[in-house]
Amino acid sequence: MFRRALGAAALLLALPVSLPATAAIEALPKDFAIRDIAVNGTTIHARVGGHGPAVVLLHGFGDTGDMWAPLAGPLSATHTVVIPDLRGMGLSSVPEQGYDKKNQAQDVADVLDSLHIERADIVGHDIGNMVAFAFAERYPARTSRLVMMDAPVPGVGPWDDILKSPLLWHFRFGGKDMERLVAGRERIYLDRFWNDFAADPARFDEASRAHYAQLYAQPGHMHAGFAQFAAFDQDVIDNRASVAQGRLKMPVLAIGGGHSLGATMAFIMRFAADNVSELVVTDSGHWLMEEQPQITTAAITAFLNGSGLAVPLNQTRLSAAQVYALGRGPGGAGTSQLQGVQTTILSGNPDAPGPYAFEIRVPAHTRIAAHTHRDNRTALVVSGEWHFGYGTVAKNNSTVKLGPGGFYTEPAGVAHFAYTGDEPTVVYITGEGPTDTHYTSIADDPANR
Fold first, then answer.
1. pLDDT of 19-38, one tens digit each?
2. Number of domains into which the chain is organized
3. pLDDT (tens digit, 9 = 90+) per residue, 231-273?
4. Residues 370, 281: one domain?
5. Domain span including residue 281
6. Model's pTM, two decimal places?
7. DSSP readout, 171-225?
8. 83 and 145, same structural domain?
């Protein structure tokens, strides 16, 4: 979506989801307590469950806190999970004013105060993304980690270019006449977002559409939705002022849908934060929790648990002919980089975090000196004759001859070497990036020749 729109821009969707609706959607865990908390001139409807360090999940337009059901259960095993409906959305009250994101950050802070929570991880999607950013800027000491999901940030990075996208006409769509046009047609209006901003509209299922559309149709809710967008001008002023005071220091995970903001989400955040990890969920549009809940949940859970970034393995199917037709190069990260050895990337990026696979084509009578890699790797001989051995010095009598179908491992930090005989050899190698190659002897490194 956003990639189609100049590669930047977030559709910003986030409406309520807690009112009983006619269609059944995935429910939050049954042991989550319901709290209606009077704060900052409004009442915030929140669900709270789990135990451990706190995490706040902030929804966007087109959703409510109910969108977090796939994530809430896994997170609650290690975290106290707080899921508020933003002001004017879901089952929260509908005040006339206060929809600038800096003020809604105070809503979140006040909710945490009422729960006696001093510090939390903050996760946002769409408009919740903007509230999450405002919270981190206004309360950096209270923000442990920040997850920003597929929405631009008013006034930060390429915001002015993002606004030029024709897909984002709804940013300026609001007011009494617009509310009259949409009244009674909330489902039609929302379907436009759910369809246009998804990689596959069918993944935003009918039960969810009926549920959210009913919530949007509640008195004042569409007015509040429009007010979220109308506040962008003030959000630009507030964000530019806060960024000018200093950059965010907490760890940030920027997630973009491959058919939406993609890598632009991380690009935006690097204008305001020092420690940004990037994740692109390739088979998803804007609706990450609806379109790819398992991948998105795994990534967020791993990041918040401090165990690193869980990068998804993309779905790939290539015939032998298709592999052969792919471009070949002299080799990059994780390869020998010897002259004559050709490398084809089959999956992932060896230079970046996450799983990768590549093919090497090694000419006959080629020797690859002893070297190590930082990641664990496995390999399969596809064709030819491959002599492979372990050790810091390459010795012919230390190798095992592997023909087609032969398998071996390259444990992280363990020196190994290889050579071909009278036949060229093709080998497939897989690992978990980022990878590299360090020759045991500096003299053997092709870069020094």
1. 333 346 888 999 999 999 99
2. 2
3. 999 999 999 999 999 999 999 999 999 999 998 999 999 999 9
4. no
5. 33-304
6. 0.70
7. GG--SHHHHHHHTT-HHHHHHHHHHHT-SSGGGS-HHHHHHHHHHHTSTTHHHHH
8. yes
